[in-house]
Specification:
Belongs to the YciI family. It comes from Merismopedia glauca CCAP 1448/3. This is YCII-related domain-containing protein. Strand 2 and strand 3 form a beta hairpin. The protein is of the alpha+beta class. The protein is globular and about 50 Å long. The protein is built from 4 helices and 4 strands.
Length: about 100
């Protein structure tokens, strides 16, 4: 299953985030086989505002375990973490998947 992890950065944590960046990236590297895609969202001022990861794990518990061990999360860099099941529409997982979705409504 795939889960979207939306991790909103807390205010006034830039120093902590920068100090932990190497540890965070090492964690991402060590778990990249479970990450479908991911990266930060950037606000209009060019600053990161949220980490978004689409994680491929067996169940919700796997997604929760992943984020609980994430260095930024452990250090309080995230103000809020939302985990939701994610369903891929694009790119199509197989030809015609989007049309089948349209026609199912």
């Amino acid at each position: 299953m795939r889960f979207a992890l939306q991790c909103l950065l807390a205010e006034n944590t830039d120093e902590k985030r920068v100090a932990l960046r190497s540890k965070h990236l090492q964690y991402i590297e060590a778990n990249k086989e479970r990450i479908f895609c991911g990266g930060p969202t950037i606000n209009l001022d060019g600053q990161p505002e949220m980490m978004l990861i689409i994680l491929d794990v067996a169940n919700l518990s796997g997604a929760q375990d992943f984020i609980e061990a994430e260095p930024y999360n452990q250090a309080g860099v995230f103000a809020q973490v939302v985990i939701s099941e994610w369903r891929q529409i694009l790119p199509e997982s197989e030809p015609g998947a989007l049309l089948r979705e349209i026609n199912s409504n």
